[in-house]
Specification:
Layout lengths: L7 H10 L5 H14 L6 E5 L5 H7 L6 E6 L2 H17 L4 E4 L6 E6 L2 E9 L11 E6 L10 H14 E12 L1 H6 L4 E5 L3 E10 L4 E10 L7 E8 L3 H10 L4 E6 L12 E7 L11 H23 L1
Parallel strand pairs: 1-2, 1-6, 2-5, 6-7
Antiparallel strand pairs: 3-4, 4-5, 7-13, 8-9, 9-10, 10-11, 12-13
Helix pairs in contact: 1-4, 2-3, 2-8, 5-7
Bound molecules: S-adenosylmethionine.
GO molecular function: methyltransferase activity
InterPro entries: Methyltransf_12, SAM-dependent_MTases_sf
Keywords: Methyltransferase, Transferase
């Protein structure tokens, strides 16, 4: 059954609902992973980019000159494009022009830097691009939305096909352990112009977590909207097998925001995968790992403080 999620109304309030998500910290972790693997990508493909909260962090990386942000929901992409246009208008840094009419495609100039940003309404189970990317990323457990194992396999195959020879595929996922043990609960998020009734349901045997949302605008004249989000948890071994079968020769799995090995009962996992067999190993070293591990712990502590007060 196809369930609709990320409809126009949810896209409108998504950033408000997610206002406590530490995107800044996620971006610091990504930067550390890139440094760790000595990777300076010029082109990036972001899968399930949503309203582009992480795309904006990618834009800050000066060595990137081409970003494609892909999402199934046109409503989420429209919101992302609206945010980008506002940012460009209010920023002294960028000059911009549209490249093609009716395409969500932007060419920006920032000093000597030329940057193109393209939003694409596509399914992450089936995409291909003529120009390959040095980095493919996905954040915020978006790949768990692929609740059928064949969808995950197709996504990995498309990602492998979209990467340059030495490129990296970095993504996060909720672990199977987390999905199975999420506490079933309901609560209400009170926004300025809406109420969002949130209900968590867990089908532990199916490794499935569902969130039922009912969003009611404060305006009595407007109807409430309902949508269901479904995420499936997969064992690390399954994900590794699918990645390997899709052409990734080497994969590192981390307990998120650390450089410690990820486990099936870690909360969130980060995967770094490469088609070039030596690509990940060449840059590893125990001391380097300890340094980045410690740095991320301190970052995490500082970020937690920010959310406490
Ligand atoms: C939890 S949101 C994360 C959005 C964004 N990555 C962020 O960090 O805010 C999940 C996103 O996955 C997208 N999505 C779900 N299934 C998808 C699919 N099959 N193909 C592409 N995008 C999909 C949704 O539209 C939504 O924008």
């Amino acid at each position: 059954m196809v369930e609709h999620s990320y409809t126009t109304y949810f896209a409108e309030i998504y950033d408000d609902v997610m206002k406590n998500v530490p995107y800044q910290y996620w971006s610091r972790y990504l930067k550390d992973l890139l440094k760790y693997y000595k990777h300076q990508p010029e082109s990036v493909l972001e899968l399930a980019s949503g309203t582009s909260n992480m795309t904006f962090k990618l834009i800050e990386l000066q060595f990137i000159n081409r970003i494609t942000a892909l999402d199934l929901s046109s409503a989420m992409l429209a919101k992302a494009a609206e945010k980008l246009e506002t940012k460009i208008k209010n920023s002294q840094d960028f000059n911009y022009f549209f490249t093609e009419e009716n395409e969500m495609s932007y060419q920006l100039e920032q000093g000597k830097r030329q940057l193109s940003i393209n939003f694409k309404a596509l399914n992450m189970t089936d995409f291909s691009f003529e120009n390959k990317f040095d980095l493919v990323v996905s954040f915020f457990d978006s790949l768990n939305y692929l609740t059928d194992i064949d969808q995950l396999k197709n996504c990995f195959e498309s990602a492998a096909d979209s990467l340059t020879k030495d490129g990296l595929f970095i993504f996060d996922m909720n672990s199977i352990g987390r999905i199975k043990t999420i506490e079933e609960k309901s609560f209400v998020i009170e926004g300025d112009s809406y109420e969002c009734f949130w209900e968590d349901l867990v089908k532990s045997k199916e490794n499935l977590w569902q969130v039922k949302l009912k969003i009611c605008p404060d305006n009595d004249q407007l109807p409430c909207f309902e949508e269901t989000h479904s995420e499936r948890g997969y064992k690390i071994e399954t994900i590794l097998r699918l990645l390997k079968n899709s052409g990734f020769k080497t994969v590192d799995v981390y307990n998120a925001f650390s450089f410690a090995k990820g486990k099936n009962n870690s909360d969130r996992l980060y995967f770094a995968a490469a088609k070039n067999e030596g690509r990940l190993q060449n840059n590893q070293g125990k001391l380097k790992k300890i340094y980045y591990g410690a740095k991320n712990r301190i970052d995490y502590f500082l970020v937690s403080l920010k959310y406490l007060f």
